[in-house]
Amino acid sequence: MSSQKRPRSIRMRLTLTYVVAMLVILTVYAGVVYISVRGSLSQTLDRQLRDDFMWPEGMMTEDKLRELLRSENKQIGGEGSPWLQVWWRENGQDHLLGTYEAKSNPIPEAAQLARNAADGKIRTLSEMIPPYRILTGRTKVGNISLVIQVAKSEGPMRKYLRDLLLVLLFGLPLAVAIAGLGGYSLARRALAPVDRMAEQARLITAERLKERLPVDNPRDELGRLATVFNETLMRLESSFEHMRRFTADASHELRTPLTAMRSVGEIGLRGKRDSAAYRRTGRELVVPGACARIRAEWIAVLDCDLGAVSATVHATSVCPPGRISS
Fold this sequence. Notes:
Elements (H helix, E strand, L loop, with lengths): L9 H50 L2 H9 L12 E8 L2 E6 L1 H5 L5 H7 L5 E4 L6 E10 L2 E10 L1 H48 L18 H48 L6 H11 L4 H16 L5 H5 L11
Antiparallel strand pairs: 1-2, 1-5, 3-4, 4-5
Helix pairs in contact: 1-5, 6-7, 6-8
């Protein structure tokens, strides 16, 4: 991302980073939840199919089957019974019994599956609306070999998954928005010391070097930064104080020789004198090496005030009061 498109505020960058991270995390979480729920519902539906498949074997006898065969409606179970069909062949004739649910919602592929695919596997009939899962297998009740079919609609499962997906799709943006507000609030609180330090730093000038940055918590990163900055301000204040003291010392030390030079000049210019007298006065004003000596003593005073002179220079008494001779 270019510097022009990047948000200038650290608070905003932190918030955007937090929002993106939460969006990724919540999206992955929602995907895992959806896949887990779908797998659990699918396994539950398969388990119910296998339980329904065991129902005729446990509830019916050979005599009951023959009695149902002689009846006219060929129906087993009541209205609350699961979708179930029982096929068997006797004396060269196919017989079919079914529950109320099987007769109310016939499956066109059931007969073909009963003849060719009675292998105990669960198959999904996706062409039906809603799709059905059907289990076809063989069993025996007494001396009668049966082909049992049980089926269940995927409609309730798909409706539940559709409702869950809608909740996730509408809840995800809401959760991200709440996370964004929370992230902005956290970033604002975390960076509040920076704002206070910036406001205090604007007040610090050369005349107000005694001001210091506020330190809320000296043990965290911002507190350590403020502490280091305050230590820098202390060194700057000390340096400025040395400069002020040097300026005052230099002004004081130069006042005596300059006054003497001015006095010599004023006395030399009084009355009328010949050229030799003026030359003598000039030699008194411009003493050979005087300017060099004064400049060297200035440097010595500056080095002494800044703590840069060696022990030898200190031993020669360059820095003590009255160090520049007149």
